[in-house]
Amino acid sequence: MAKSDTRGDTKGGTARRPRSPQRTSQASRAARRPAAAKTETPYHHGALREALLQAAERVLERDGLAGLTLRAVAREAGVSHAAPTHHFGDLTGLVSELAAIGFRQFNAAMASACDTATSPLERALARPKAYVAYAQAHPGMYGLMFRTERLDYSRPSLHEAAESSFAGLANAISAMRQEPISGRALTIEQGAAIARAWSMVHGFTMLLLDGRLEDILERLPAGTTAEQLLEAILKSTVAARMPSGT
Amino acid sequence: MAKSDTRGDTKGGTARRPRSPQRTSQASRAARRPAAAKTETPYHHGALREALLQAAERVLERDGLAGLTLRAVAREAGVSHAAPTHHFGDLTGLVSELAAIGFRQFNAAMASACDTATSPLERALARPKAYVAYAQAHPGMYGLMFRTERLDYSRPSLHEAAESSFAGLANAISAMRQEPISGRALTIEQGAAIARAWSMVHGFTMLLLDGRLEDILERLPAGTTAEQLLEAILKSTVAARMPSGT
DNA sequence: CTATGCATCTTTACGATGTAAAGATAGCGA
DNA sequence: TCGCTATCTTTACATCGTAAAGATGCATAG
């Protein structure tokens, strides 16, 4: 339903001067959009911003990054194609706000995973495993957060959410190394430890989502999953690096 | 010059039925494109396919991934916007062939870097350093190879080039571990070693290109470069993993 | 209670893109 | 010399992002 942008656009280019009054009264407009806005007021949605973000997340997980367009989101929400502009400015704005939501979900998932861990070894494994698990459960969202070039990190919501994600990682690493970070400064060893951990998990996730680890998984003993491969990587890494055996 | 696709298109939508003979003779056409094709034959370019790929690489490094469009490449090459279709089918085709070229450049860069290395430690560092160096020198190309969703790996040229890249990595890892890979099968430890190395370098590169390591670099001692950070990561990794000290 | 202003949403319009389809051109073999 | 076919151009169209102007309804001042 509503295949062509609630009609209008790209139809006749020659006729129809820009300034024809035309007076489409409320009745004709309401008759044209029967299904949208079930019991809500048709005009003045009230919570269009949140509705658009939820619609965007649905579109993203259904049609992928390529399908996430302003017009598709507007269609999904049942409003005109230009409605999102007023709330987000442009596509970058919408995408950035959605990515901020993604980072918050992501942070929450990792925090809850760390809470349920008991032993130090388990704690060291819980975070990266939750990282990859989130990306597998929300591939569209993860791609939006880490693959899209149209993100505006100057937006406070996105900047803050992404910053919080980084802070969680840095804290986890410094806790594992048992040397707290003093202020903002980092030694080269600390920076290398953080960058190594982040690079490893992020790289693994990207390769996995892109299907580039299939080659390796096929060569492994039959039935080996990506999670088991990740665990093997993590265990050998942690074993070579933790202060003492658990 | 030639700002609007050699003219035509998007002009009048209503009039002009599809089948008007219209007979634009050769004279009018030649007069319309004066500057393109300097001394070559105007029609039947002869080596359009290669010219388009070179044009595409120029456009990619100049305008980034977002600027790499079929029409922009055609403009850059001085041909009509539909000319690439005949040689590559669609945008995925062109992009895939260009990515294959990128993989070949990439493989050559890493091979030559390994050749110049002498000590085992140097050999272990040369490949990942060349990896990151290539990505920094050709960010557009690397993004095309590892960020684009529009790649068709069923194309033989791309499949082969990417496969060769993976084989080089796997060989380097098995050489470092001093246990050759038997046939196609991998133990879980071998798979983990390969996936770990690839994930680390790929993740580092992506984060670096996306500017996400800026935060870490700023906190490091003043003047620390990305290369130094990478080296610190690699050295600690290799030190924990190589059979004996060098 | 009415009028005015403003935030919200819709219409209309335009340039750009990918792609399909049909026309034009040239080289090459029968 | 005459088609045949590969190569390139024209034309057309749906879709997208975005700008600009109109329509609508809520809030608030008078």
Automatic annotation (TrEMBL), chains A, B:
Residues 21-37 have a biased composition (Low complexity). Residues 1-44 are annotated as: Disordered. Residues 46-106 form the HTH tetR-type domain. Signal peptide: none annotated. Residues 1-10 have a biased composition (Basic and acidic residues). It comes from the Bacteria. InterPro entries: Homeodomain-like_sf, HTH-type_TetR-like_transc_reg, HTH_TetR, MT1864/Rv1816-like_C, Tet_transcr_reg_TetR-rel_C_sf. The keyword Signal does not apply. Gene3D superfamilies: Tetracycline Repressor, domain 2. GO terms for molecular function: DNA-binding transcription factor activity; transcription cis-regulatory region binding. Residues 69-88 bind DNA. Keywords: DNA-binding, Transcription, Transcription regulation. This is Transcriptional regulator. It comes from Bradyrhizobium manausense.
